[in-house]
């Protein structure tokens, strides 16, 4: 039964894996401002970077609209040069920003040809240029088509999903997307919305610096120990610079009752500059090239006024900037830059550094900020590791070395792909389909978040109270609970950013609002009126959570009350039941409370201290003594019953606990304070089991006096919060659904475009191929001139139709044209194929006939020489008949085919030849398999008993086989005599002369080698039955 259950479970697991393996792939997107890198993990592929349509490992983050179609990647970049108003790039900085934000204004200065309008929520929307195709130099005329930044980035993520699914060859929905660590709450929510538009299930928004640190640590996990090792990552990307200090060390974590030791990376400090990146270097270099062209006086036009020419210079500036990272000088050149005039000029690295000196002076600032917030010095940093394309500039590396005091900088990681690979490792860890080695990541919150609320005391003015919820550099994910002790009426509070004085004035202005949320709590007064009469208020508790993506949410709000313990007059059994009930209902607060454990006690005293004090004053000293004695007696009686119950039920649990403690003593030399406190509490609950015996009765009395009363019943009344988002209003549900529908329509349109292009290409390819084949010799021999003329006319007509086709033609029309041509050429193509493949097929039939004929002759000889033969007469006759019929069919049809013209339908078809070959092969395989499993019968000879030296008794069988009693029974034969004894054996009658003659003839018959090899096991099993039968017949015990 147990084995069958295991088999059933294995089959169910196999079925589950078979059905779910197709959807187990996960992906990551390192979404930069200039490029995105996509990585996947799927069964059989641990971590791999996805190649795009151009077989490149990184794809430009740009979406363009041309001819009412979307374009991505390199194709969109080409459109950005010719029609810059309809190509949208460097979008990520605009996420979660309102139109009047300084970042948006700076973007408009860099890309003035875009028309930006506000959305219903005040965020950025782009109006599409709809008449740009008339002339690249025409003034753009903007239409009614508008797309928000979230929708445009959703399109980019949709393309990333499409590339990943094509690379993985299966659908993918789970994704981890990287974002800069300086993204605030509004920006993170906007990125979450873009992923929703793309149809992706967002597992986590992971800070790109943390993803890089994770990728660096995963491949070096054996180098870390219990002592923290600190590294600095310097990342200069397209638009920003981020410096991160992280610490790697092994930490112990508890999973249930097990303690694990895993590596952990913790973010200790972050410094950043949102405007220091490669884009600013490229824009300045573009303007420098434009000034050089105007200085050459090749045309009277100003290159700065031509958007297309500036787009070409922008592209060339990026290329030359990258070349100057390895060379001191290079030529910049653009063909037909303006008014059909070419541009060529020599530029040097020194010129690039001089025009960017003010930017280079800002390189050291993020390093200083990261060291300051981490409260560390460079002496504690083990290595400085470079990231990002901007760090390839020699001058930047020189300034980093100077700021850090390090002569050598770490270049051991792939600056382009490290973040994508670290994020996809995290995606595999978060998904349910993979089991990866744990590498814990503790990220840090860069902006402090606080809660503000008003409180008024009697006779005093209203006072605004501020409490920090998540401080600067607090790790996350994390949950916290804030308790409002003094509120018994409905009230509201606000969640805002805290003190941001450590940021520059420009960075603070980038926040559209420092206020995050306003929360109104209704129902507090009603809950208080409902429970205040028979219960004590413990305040209103708000449960906050900052998830793995760094997004703050309010999970729930509840008003908590505690009832007094049950009356003491109850029976001991009822009291015991209430105690157990209170134990489960009076659960402690979730971890992460804003207050420390000490603060909880203090606030609890403030909230209910007066009431408890009044009740104590009303009680006399004598009543107190009697109550203590009564409580002591009842507690002793309760302990006795609990000890009996525990002795019966917890014996096994105690044994397991002892084993676990022994294991923990071996692995953990030092225990934390939390387990010690837990053991102490456990000892108090069991009635002072840990008290030293030397203390005697005095210690027992002291314990009884200090013993806590039964826990009160906790009542939690859910309060429904009404939240109002203040920093960035999210779109309505209808607006979100509408945006998703728009992107789905665009996606379907792209798919239809691909299918239409495939149908067009298939028809065009068939026409060219057919026209060429009609002039080839095999097709001329297999067709008449009249037939070829008819086919050429049809192909010419289809070619003319194809040339006149446009975007209005449907996919079905192309398919119908292709089907018509295939039907017309089918007969000719089949004749040519038959003529070309027939000689090979006839040669294969000839070889099969020769092989079958030889096999038949061997079978015939074997059946004539053996009495016990493996084949029946019918089987041999059937094979002979099949061979003769096939030879006759072959001869007849070859002659008929020779008499048939090549232009007529063939008489001898390749498929008919294949049928004959399969029939011969099937019959031969059947006979061969039968010979392999054939076991010839053993001849039977009479047994004779003879005496041998050494007092051994041997039994002679009719086959002259002997058996020694000391040797024991033969393999597979039962022992029929007792060793060391001789038993009378009944002798069989002597064989007749005719039997002897037959036995001799049978013993001389040859056995085939194949039968001996394949039938060993069958012979041995048959010999067991034969020998045992012999013993039963001829041996009497």
Automatic annotation (TrEMBL):
Span of the signal peptide: 1-23
Gene3D superfamilies, alphabetized: 1.20.1270.10, 3.30.30.30, 3.30.420.40, Actin, Chain A, domain 4, Substrate Binding Domain Of DNAk, Chain A, domain 1
GO BP annotations listed: endoplasmic reticulum unfolded protein response
Composition bias type Polar residues, residue spans: 947-961
Region (Disordered): 583-733, 937-1037
Main location: endoplasmic reticulum
Any one GO molecular function term: ATP-dependent protein folding chaperone
Basic and acidic residues: compositionally biased ranges: 587-719, 994-1037
GO cellular component entries: endoplasmic reticulum chaperone complex; endoplasmic reticulum lumen
Keywords: ATP-binding, Chaperone, Endoplasmic reticulum, Nucleotide-binding, Signal
InterPro entries: ATPase_NBD, Heat_shock_70_CS, HSP70_C_sf, HSP70_peptide-bd_sf, Hsp_70_fam
Cellular location(s): Endoplasmic reticulum lumen
Family stated for the protein in its record: Belongs to the heat shock protein 70 family.
Protein name, per record: Hypoxia up-regulated protein 1
